[in-house]
Amino acid sequence: MADQSASRAPLSECHACREAGQHPAEPSHEPERERLNRKWNEILQETRVAQTGVQILFGFLLSVAFTPYFHKLETFDHVVYVITVVLGASGTGALIAPVSIHRLLSGQRMKDHIVRVAGRLMVCGMVLLALTIGGTLLLLLHVVVPGLLAELLVGGVMLWFALCWYGLPVWLRRRSDDDAA
User: What's the burial of 160, exposed, middle or buried (CB within 10 Å: 0-12/13-18/19+)?
Assistant: First the structure.
């Protein structure tokens, strides 16, 4: 049993990534500079995916206010729209911020701080993206689906997001901790 846990990958890496050469087999032998560069590159790749989603959604939201039907919506729908647009703008800001921070602080020997802050901004941006998707879905479903059903469907989708984006990683980490123990 001790031999199995000694050969397990640390929590910061997965087997598939290690196989693909994205993570070293022994991260303790990875020089600090290489580790920070690897983490920064991972953040950039993750940010590219999230930025695309939030920017497309935000662009769609901005165009909604200029449609003839928008002015016929009820006050509730206008409030949901405004909140959703603000969430989308905030998510865009959080997901683009790491690039700006890196550019402004490049060469200042602060990469460890930049990587840490960028990781937190990514998590914040993902929460804001999920909320933006939920608000957009609520806005659309409230117009299309009668009554309480819209809110129930949005609640179900948001629960799914919470499970996929946050619950599953927490469960996997705990499972890995239990396996390593």
Answer: exposed
